[in-house]
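Case study B.
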Amino acid sequence: MTRKDFLKSFAAAPVLSSAARAQAAAKPCPPWQPGGLDIHHISTGRGNSTLFITPDGTSMMVDAGATSASLQYTITPKPSGARRPGEWLGRYAQRHLRAAGRDEIDYFVLTHLHGDHMGDVTPDQPMSKLGGYRLTGVSDVAEIVPIRRILDRGYPDYTYPSKQSNGAALNYIEFVKTQQKHGAVAERFRAGSAQQIRLLRKPSEFSNFSVRNLAVNGEVWTGVGDTTRHHFPALETLKPEDYPSENMCCLALRLSYGAFDYYTGGDLPSGIHDGAPAWRDIESPVARVAGPVEVAVLNHHGYTDTTGADYVSSLRPRVFLLLAWDSAHPAISSLQRIYSQSLYPGPRDVFATALKAENKIANKGLANLKSDDGHILVRVAPGGQEFRILILDNTSESDLVKAEFGPYPCG
Ligand SMILES: [Zn+2]
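Model:
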């Protein structure tokens, strides 16, 4: 047992008493405070989106999903279907940024080009007044809150491993080009870098904050300096039908503040399909180089092709976050692994942004979750020595605190 695990084993987070919970439920979410780190996992039932307000106020959003998946498989949209999912995301970001004295998203980071992370395209969506793309997901967000920098896995040519061709991806690429014409900066996410995403306001006051780019397009940080290695074979050696999938090309990052570490990696799979070559498991090498963290987001919404043993035992977080909305989120096998005491010892709490009722019937272990409905705010205290989890109501824009968990010590 490492020192970190030893300390964690004593750090069972007390759940608030019912009286304390009722008191918490009465108040709206207190705003971000300078020196604190807020990470909002926004629950719209239509895809992933996470808003970061970092210790000096630099802001970042990772993904802005707006899936067009059938309601047969997904929860009902939150707060409602009265607006597009991207509009709800933009309004959420605007509210919380304004409360923090900000009115821009400094970094938008797209893990990969799928609709539940950037916005699907449907004929009823209006065109942007800025140009030839529809308003969905991130393009809806940008109409409400200006985005200054866009980082993704494909810029500028979007041709790895092959040219993007689906309508949602082409819409996104047109959005990026248009934003550039209006002054935004676009860059390809650089694996291994700890400089591409940095504090922009008072960096010298928070030298214990950093974002390490762990991987993109199968290029994985080695853990030494900024160096990387290629995990996928050269495309010339593969048949086109065996090229890495869009999910396999996801970017992943580790954010650190003091003793607090956080992992997120889009839809990276461990590739459990029988007979697949080992290189199709990209989740495991990325988790190994990320190392232990306090909070880990489940890859690919905890789907059946992800959350492998190496992911669980390498990250060994105190808190797992499941960004979910579909009846297949998470798989029974994924849930069993994240609670496995064989993969790592000690307590762990699991929170989901949503669960489809049908999955709760099939997957009885879901009864053990601390929360399965609402925005999940990870609030790290100034200095990064402890954090709390706040669950915010997602049925309106009130941002009322439904429940609070912690404090959890870091390190
Ligand atoms: Zn996804």
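Residues 9-14 have pLDDT under 50 and may be disordered. The remaining cases will be described in the next quarterly update.
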